[in-house]
Amino acid sequence: MVEESFLLPPSVDPEKRKLGIRNVRAVNHAGTRTECHVRDFAPVVTDEPDTMGGTNTAPSPLETALVALVGCDGVIINGVAGAMGFAYSRVEFACSSQIDVRGPKGVPGVRPYFESVELEITVFTDEPPARFEKLQKNVEFRCPVMNLFRAAGVALDVHWASRPAADAASREAGR
Question: What CATH class is the domain 60-175?
Answer without folding.
Answer: alpha beta
